[in-house]
Amino acid sequence: MYESFYGLKAKPFSIVPQAEFLFPSRRHSAALHLLEYGLMSHAMLTLITGDIGTGKTTLIRCLLRKVGLDVTLGLVSFTHSAYGDFLRWILTAFGIDTKRRTQAEMYEAFVKFLVEQYALGKRVVLVVDETQNLSPAGLEQLRLLSNVNVEGHELLQIIMAGQTNLRDKLLQPGLEQLVQRIAFSYHLEPLDRRETEQYIRYRLSTAGCSDSATVFTPDAFDIVYEKSGGVPRVVNTICDSAMVYGYAQQKPIIDGAIVAEVIEDRERTGIPFLPRYAEHEPISVERIAKGVVDTPAAADQR
73, 35 in Cβ contact below 8 A? Predict the structure, then answer.
């Protein structure tokens, strides 16, 4: 809708995970390097956690683009028990037939698959997204699968990605052996104020903006950060809405007043961009327009 108006070639703030839009913040870069190293070093288990919307799935998508031909890859995102048997999803991810097979038969089929891939000189990597939805029994299945080896060589590498509560779940009694197999672990946190501004500019530039520094004003960055908490997915949602509003008003620059209007309109629906927004004093469009909101940018100028 607004892409041509702002000189963009693509939508910059989609909430759909896109590897090409991964912002190389310090935390995201560290997490990606850790994932890559875990992959290269044949780590048995690698764990990535983070709050909702911090970019875990985008990191996984970026990693998957880097795997070589020597890797046989399987991705499982349907981890909730409502979607059916977890082991069946694992086999399906690798193209293994599961029809009319019992649990024992599926396990045997997967072990046979691992051995065959090893004989071909290939590594098998299983990526489990949304791992926090797994039951203790599902997590135990991962441990059992990680036990499979030939002549001391582990046949399966597992990468687990999940929300923050996954760490608490892994500390439950009975999962000690699984935790001991985790070679590398990293926790993603939201962006800080400076990174949030860099993130917005990066995505604009990636989408084709010739001068990303002029689209959003400093007070707009301040409000986006305050109301998003630096969570990338929420930043995307706010900025996308702000650009729709800017386009509707034919304003080439997104200032604080536009972002504040987006926030106020969203608050009226009763579904805020971020639930903890209520901890902050509501931002008034009129106060922004009059320049009396005490944002970090304004404080820096005093």
Answer: no
10 is a domain residue: no
Q: What is the DSSP string of 125-194?
A: EEEESSGGG--HHHHHHHHHHHT-EETTEE-EEEEEEEETHHHHHHTSTT-HHHHHTEEEEEEE----HH
Is the domain of 179 the same as that of 228?
no
Asked if residue 52 is part of any domain, the answer here is yes
Q: What is the CATH number of the domain that holds 144?
A: 3.40.50.300
Tens digits of per-residue pLDDT, 38-86?
999 999 999 999 999 999 999 999 999 988 889 999 999 877 776 678 9
Q: Looking at the 3D structure of the chain, how many domains does it have?
A: 2
Q: Which residue type sits at 297?
A: A
* Whether residue 142 is found in the same domain as residue 60: yes
pLDDT in tens, 233-292: 999 999 999 999 999 999 999 999 999 999 999 999 988 887 653 344 444 444 444 444
User: Residues 290, 163: one domain?
Assistant: no
Cβ atoms within 10 Å, residue 230: 22
Instruction: Kindly give the residue spans of alpha helices, DSSP state H, lying in the chain.
Output: 26-40, 56-64, 86-93, 103-119, 136-146, 165-170, 176-180, 193-206, 218-228, 232-248, 256-268, 285-290, 296-300
Domain that holds residue 77: 26-188
Q: What are phi and psi of 183, to 5 degrees?
A: -80, -40
Tokens standing for 75? 């991705």
